Amino acid sequence: MILLDPDARPVIGHRGNRAHAPENTLESFREAVTLGVDAVEFDLRVSRDDALVVMHDQTLDRTTDGSGSVAMRTVAELRSLDAGARFTRDEGHTFPWRGRGATVSTFDEVIESLPRELPCIIELKTPAATELVKVAIRRHDIAHRIIVAGFDPDATRPLRGAGFALGASTPDVVKLLLPALLRQRVGPQRFQALCIPPRWHGIPVPIAALARALQGSGTVIHVWTINDPAYALRLWDEGVHGIISDDPGLMLAARKNAWIE
Q1: 3-class SS at 5?
Q2: If we measure between CA atoms, which residue out of 213, 163, 171, 173 comes closest to residue 193?
């Protein structure tokens, strides 16, 4: 799988084509696929009736015309909301996706809408999704093309040995920082990918040091959220594998025009 290939430089659509379409919607994923992304990334929460739904926030207020907790709504209630209602590219002057039918989707709907072999990074936003996603991955037969990640170790550690790749939790990444800063190499880990930002709560993450430390370990690094093509090229040059971007079209063009291809 390209997401685990140490020699690949994948471009990953962050919540689809988030800069141009409402995040985590089928429309956003379709746009990302049309651009030619190597993979997509999306977030999972659990509805009141125990369905996996593709939403980043704990509440509905930022991205839909609804309000309140995602976990307190049924799938039917979530589907009735306009997931494009608050999407804007000009700081709220216009809302080009309002009323166009974009809605909150289930995990099943997203997987079924994507090309059959397109890799995915799936971020669990709550431990309530852990067992549900294990069953869903088996049902869709997609273990070979996914990474399941999450900040919370309670969400991801129960999935060790489940037959698909895992991303490091926040505590997992923290344990790697000292050896990386001491320029030490680390061996194989119990996870296959680091999905990390350039800064964490305002503190720079030593990405290049982590890339050096993990070289040859079997663990790759994907960095989010990178929307500057020059910065993406620098990260690739420093040993980062994947670029997770709100604007994957820009990253694909940068890769095509640079030393990578």
Answers
A1: coil
A2: 173
φ/ψ of residue 52, rounded to 5:
-75, 125
Q: What's the distance, Cα to Cα, between the start and end of the chain in Å?
A: 19
Interval 9-55: pLDDT, tens = 999 999 999 999 999 999 999 999 999 999 999 999 999 999 999 99
Q: List, for residues 101-126, the tens digit of each pLDDT value.
A: 999 999 999 999 999 999 999 999 99
Cα–Cα distances in angstroms (integers) from residue 28 to residues 32, 59, 105, 222, 256, in the given order: 6, 20, 11, 20, 22
Q: How far apart are CA 45 and CA 125, in angstroms?
A: 6
Q: What would the two tokens of residue 29 be?
A: 């994923």
For every residue of 242-261, which 3-state class applies, written as one string? EEEECCHHHHHHHHHHCCCC
219, 225, 231, 232 alpha-carbon torsion, rounded to 10°: 50
Residue in 151, 248, 135 with CA at minimum distance from that of residue 196: 151
User: How much is the pTM?
Assistant: 0.93
Residue for token pair 């988030």: 18
Instruction: Collect all residues with Cβ–Cβ distance below 8 Å to 79 and sequence separation of at least 6.
Output: 103, 104
